[in-house]
Amino acid sequence: MPRRRAAPAPESGAPVRPPWLRELAAGYLTVFPRVSPERRRGLQGFSFHRRRGRERAGIFVGFLTGPAPECAVFAFVEPAGGALHKRLVSGPKSLFQETYGFVTKYTARPPRFALHDEAAAALVRSVLLAAFSRSEREKHARNFFMETLALLQRTGLPEKLARALD
User: Fold this and answer.
1) Model confidence over 59-95: pLDDT tens digits?
2) Which residue segments constitute the domains of the chain, with CATH numbers given?
3) Helix axes 21-28, 134-155, angle to 10 degrees
């Protein structure tokens, strides 16, 4: 009797496990003195950030894990709703509002950035990688991260975000 092959397990976790991710992101985010590995609440990657008391601001680079994994880059200000968050994210003509206007103007193709002015992870860009074969995922992930980080660097967001906590 021929052996039955087990059905493949549904995909979960990061679509690729790139050893190059931290170094690639660090080249774009040199203004952040702290780098923390993230493996929580559906995240797997690195947070480049600064902290002042309870407030923390920075940029996450990595993956949204789960049944439909995605590459993600987002700028965050914690705690959501705090004084720093209101000034940088939700206020009129705030840093995040201006950055969102710039990146939507100069992002010619999907995926687009999204602004969530009530959330800690306020300026988000992600791409679903389930449509790509496993052999193509690393290439597409690297391209996504380089393109997104270069665009954020051109806006000056990393420097302005880091300076906000000085």
Assistant:
1) 999 999 888 889 999 999 999 999 999 999 988 899 9
2) 21-163 (3.30.1460)
3) 20
CA-CA distance, 147 to 110, in Å (whole number)? Answer: 12
Say if residues 15 and 141 touch (Cβ distance below 8 Å). yes
Structure tokens at 148: 């997104």
Token representation of residue 86: 């209101």
Is the whole model's pTM more than 0.85, yes or no?
yes
Gap between the Cα atoms of 103 and 132, Å rounded: 25
For 151, the 3-state DSSP assignment is helix
Tell me if 48 sits within 8 A of 105, measured CB to CB: no
Q: How far apart are the first and last CA of the chain?
A: 70
CA distance 155 to 149: 10
